Amino acid sequence: MKAYLGVDWSATEIVCAVAGEEGRPKRIRGRTGPTLDSVRALVERARTMAGADEVIAMIEAGSPIWIWLLFTAGAVVHVADSKQARRFAESQSSSGAKDDQRDAESLTDMCRSASHRKNPWKPDPAEIQQLDILAGLHEQITRDLGRTKQRLRDVVGRSMPLVEKALPKELCSRWVDAFLRKVATPRHARNLTRADLDGMLVRTRSATRDRVWEALQKTEAPWLTAPVAETIRLQVRFELDQMALLGKQLAEVEKRMDRVTQTMATRQMAESMGGIALKLSASLIQYAFRDGVPGDRDQASVRMGASPVFTGSARRKDGKPKGRVHMRRAAPARARRATYLIGRLASQHLDWGRAMYANAMERGQKPATAYRRIARCVLRIQTAMMRTQQPYDNARYVAALKAKGIRWADGLEQAA
Questions:
Q1: 342 with 280: CB under 8 angstroms?
Q2: Separation between Cα atoms, residue 350 and residue 345, nearest integer Å
Q3: Cα dist. 28→99, 101, 213 in Å?
Q4: What's the whole-model pTM score?
Q5: How far apart, in whole angstroms, are the C-alpha atoms of residue 71 and residue 85?
Q6: How far apart are CA 414 and CA 416, in angstroms?
Q7: Distance (Å, whole) CA 100 – CA 81
Q8: Contact 243, 155 (CB under 8 A)
Q9: Quick one: which of 192, 30, 154, 203 has its CA closest to 100?
């Protein structure tokens, strides 16, 4: 016998309902807190109420702590997509009424549906768990670094717009740090000579030094008093310090990501293709091949958001399906960004990628669509490489394209 447990969660407690193979779900009275002892008692109580040997739990995605607690307490856990759970509840009743208990009962019924519990949840390997944390940190630090750079540009641009325009896009050069710490405002540049500037801009091109010097010569702000100028200088220094700190954190995270993934076969195979390095191979490990090699050659593309979604039904008079094709939004945003970069880099580093991109432009497709098309091919190749454990062979792939009569591959014979 099996007991089916529906779990509706909040940050501090869960509301549950239990049922056997038949009959209406019964409420488990009381609310359970996020401790292992209380969840173990809940699972045992569900087993007793249903007279079952095994407890199968269904819980909505979004709270890893509850999933871990239920799994550790001995339940077989299935995690439902929030939208899917909501649609299932709507199919059960047309009233629209909603509360914690109704949600728990709906999840219990969903748990009894074999089609909704195909793959029980299982913990990821320690390497994948580390990679999830590190990738999140990398994204957060990168975002904070971008915002800090923008704030610095805003501060400099208020009093020295020409100088701000002359600075490099990334603002991460050592000379930028040295220059702005000494010349934060036009007042600090009053007594600056060309020799002083050249001393700050060591190892930069002469064109860069000329551009910055010309901008300084045209910059004036007589309204800035000494106290105000020093206050702006303090603000510039704080932003530069923050940039330096975030840069060190980013380097440390990337070093740890390298250490975690360096022995993984997925990374070694991924990087045998041109243009794919640490961050993109980490995304492939996280999303495309998280559960190993997929059986379907397009499953990695689905997980990465490279495969589009068709919405529509029936066919037009010319035999083409009615409807439209659009991007797969259900894939994580980080995976979709990695897909875009994989396609773009493949179009730059691989001859067939360049030819495929040119063909897409001839057909009037947008660059982003073309990059996803190219990324889908890359992911199919990656899946085959993972399955056979053979590194990438460009000549072999080009030969396969030509054997299939792919029109845009005709000019690749010499390159292959």
A1: yes
A2: 8
A3: 15, 9, 75
A4: 0.82
A5: 20
A6: 5
A7: 17
A8: no
A9: 30
Residue 281 to residue 198: CA distance in whole angstroms: 41
Query: Rounded CA gap, 370 and 357, in Å?
Result: 6
Q: What is the pLDDT of residues 323-372, one digit of tens each?
A: 888 888 888 899 999 999 999 999 999 999 999 999 999 999 999 999 99
Cα separation, 30 vs 114, in Å, equals: 28
Gap between the Cα atoms of 249 and 235, Å rounded: 21
**CA atoms of 210 and 199, how far apart (whole Å):** 13
| HEC letters along the chain | CEEEEEEEECCCCEEEEEECCCCCCEEEEEEECCCHHHHHHHHHHHHHHHCCCEEEEEEECCCHHHHHHHHHCCCEEEEECHHHHHHHHHHHCCCCCCCHHHHHHHHHHHHHCHHHCCCCCCCCCHHHHHHHHHHHHHHHHHHHHHHHHHHHHHHHHHHCHHHHHHCCCCCCCHHHHHHHHHCCCHHHHCCCCHHHHHHHCCCCCHHHHHHHHHHHHCCCCCCCCHHHHHHHHHHHHHHHHHHHHHHHHHHHHHHHHHHHHCCCHHHHHHCCCCCCCHHHHHHHHHHHCCCCCCCCCCHHHHHHCCCCEEECCCECCCCCECCEEECCCCCCHHHHHHHHHHHHHHHHHCHHHHHHHHHHHHCCCCHHHHHHHHHHHHHHHHHHHHHHCCCCCHHHHHHHHHHCCCHHHHHHCCCC
Task: Please report where in the chains the tokens 């915002």 appear, as a residue.
Answer: 147
pLDDT in tens, 125-173: 999 999 999 999 999 999 999 999 999 999 999 999 999 999 998 898 9
For the chain, the maximum distance between any two Cα atoms, rounded to a whole number of angstroms, is 88
